[in-house]
Design goal:
Blueprint (H helix, E strand, L loop, with lengths): L7 H15 L15 H8 L13 E12 L3 E8 L2 E8 H4 L3 H8 L5 E10 L5 E12 L15 H6 L1 H7 L1 H23 L3 E2 L5 E2 L11 E4 L4 E5 L4 H9 L4 E9 L11 E10 L3 H22 L4 H9 L5 E4 H9 L9 H10 L10 H12 L8 E4 L21 E6 L2 E8 L4 H13 L10 H8 L5 E7 H9 L18
Parallel strand pairs: 3-5, 6-10, 12-13
Antiparallel strand pairs: 1-2, 1-4, 2-3, 4-5, 7-9, 8-9, 10-11, 11-16, 13-14, 14-15, 15-16
Helix pairs in contact: 6-7, 7-9, 9-10, 12-13, 14-15
The chain binds one RNA strand of 77 nucleotides through helix 1, strand 1, strand 2, strand 3 and helix 5.
Length: about 500
Amino acid sequence: MSDPEESHLVQERRQKVERLRVRGVEPYPWNFPDRVPTSVVVERCRSLTPGATASGPDARVAGRLRTIRQHGRSAFLDLEDQAGPLQLFLRVDEIGEPAYSEWLSDLDPGDLVGAEGSPMVTRRGEPSLLVRQLTLLAKAIAPPPEKFHGLKDAELRLRRRYLDLLSAPESRARFRARSLFVREIRHFFDEHDFLEVETPVLGAVASGAAAQPFVTHSSYLDEDLQLRISLELPLKRLLVGGLERVYELGRIFRNEDLDVTHLPEFSMLEAYWAYTDYTDMQRLMEAMYFRLARRIAELLPEVPTAVEAPTLFQPPFAVVDFVDALEQYSGLHGIVDKSRDELRDLARATGTTVPEASPTGKFLEKLFEHYVEPHLTRPTFVVDHPVATTPLAKRHRSKPGRVERFELYCRGVELANAYSELNDPDDQVRRFGEQLAAKGTEFYAMDRDFVLALQYGMPPASGVGFGVDRAFMALTGTPSIKETILFPPVRSQP
RNA sequence: GGGCCCAUAGCUCAGCCCGGUAGAGCAGGCGGCUCUUAACCGCAAGAUCAGGGGUUCGAAUCCCCUUGGGCCCGCCA
């Protein structure tokens, strides 16, 4: 897209700025005190009959001009602030000449203005402000997107998110909901006595998951550092340290391709809860998602998927055994006893192209994705995965070859991943070792300091993690993760 | 990594198949209009048709390359 600097529209608006300055009007003043949201004026209009003007004190509002409809000696201006739109009504009778002509000649859609006047309702019934004083608060040099169709260009919507926000109310509503959704998650964990903590983004080795890290370099240490790919291992160290309920909600980084459900940086929540196991965590997740679903339904009453969420997430959620579900939907038998090569061949038979060097658990996950995941439309806990899938989970107390783990699925999206956390330091070393032995590109890096921490004793605990962006997508029906992120990554322009 | 699609005025879109003077609406300019709300009426203006190369008498249109974006597949515990 061409630079707006070159446009004749910009030149004309610059000339208006000069005219304003010549007239002694500051085009970029410092503040606009005592303003109220447009909703306050709309509320005061509620008791007025069409054609009536309020008798009380004047109101002051401020916001962006969306449209200007001139009718000779009167004009309607649509002003919008965060609370919503409000029509301004200008009349020569009210403000006189030359003020009326001067204001209208140098105002454009997109300008930020303040207005003072009386709440009124037009004869057509539109809540309005009968303006006595108009103040330019910031002249817009660049013209705004088209007033009716808005900004459709997908690239510009991402590169200039501010234009998307200022022209698309549904986009503003979604991002507002996202922000309050995150706040609700924090409230939930705070109220359950979890302590929010911050752990390092930069470290010597990124572990706790199998993913490609971003690598950077520290001048001070003169060594390469990796950006975190998980929150898990630092948080478990805090369990060792005696913090019994901790959570972190933060950005993590994975140096991989992006698509509608993946971005190189995204928001993850992980929580660890001492002296509980993964069944306690199931109850916590049921409560959390039910609460989040109700909140989302309040926040986005215009979005059908959001409105349906509380019904869908009504506890209790379904529970299925990972192996039972896989064998049932695939028709395969004896999954747990099959060799790595047999599982690899079965996985490849489904059409997936997992690399030869993948750990055994990878093949099981591929089989599960292919045969079972499409069937999980209602919230469902998939429990007790084979050991090979999960190097950080505790072995199952009664099912040999399994770990105590659940994944929560809904609408085909993974909404939580939780374990009874492995706290046996020797078993942890073995499990890291099994990952490394597979020598694939995907593995959990050995974190020796973490193993040392376990040697001092970590209480039995359950832990959970979920992608905040994906949880928001699933509850609201947002189709692309980019629409949940204000500034998603874009290539730099040539 | 593979495949398909898209890029025309500040914005929203026609025009492209089938090559022949680049169009509309909104926004902006000028004029009119004191209850409109995608206001309305009249006049005039606004384009590196993403960029580069090729074919052709002639390219927005056909071909190739590049850039950016979108969708699908693969990969991403």
